[in-house]
Amino acid sequence: MRNADTASGIAVSAVALFFAIMALRMPWYDSEWGISAAPGLVPLILSSCLLLCGLFLIIRARTKVGVTHYKKMEALVASVSSCDDDDDSAETPETSSEGRALTEAQRVLLTVGLSVAYVLLLGRIPYALATALYIFVFISVFQGKNYLKAAIISVISSAVVWFAFARIFFVFLP
After folding, report:
1. pTM to 2 decimals?
2. Where are the domains of the chain?
3. pLDDT digit string (tens) for 78-90?
């Protein structure tokens, strides 16, 4: 797990650095409101936070404190899972909606595949519909059989995201 966390931390840090560099390349003093309205400010703040998370992940993976903490959390999750008596509970993220176990690599590939499909849908169908479909399929695949709950969550989430960006922030959506 230490090597996986280190590799993930390096990847997250690299992406964060790329976004920080691109944010710094945006115009900073062209606005009449000064630096507080610069288009690169929010991406720089978010990439800085992401960089801190990546560095924290690397440090945690390389120190014994992180490994000990991870093992304690793993034991806690295992003990809580063994105490669960409810047969109607939602499936764990390690199983698909059909109940078969998915490996970590399969979950990552499935997530990437669903995300690529979502990006390909954007612009071809309305944004709110594409987002609702993406959320619905994602919840259905990873959470399981409660399709009504997945549909309600996906419709509400899509509507809230659309409203926030299109009506409050006046961002053009595809």
Report:
1. 0.53
2. 1-83, 91-174
3. 665 565 444 444 4
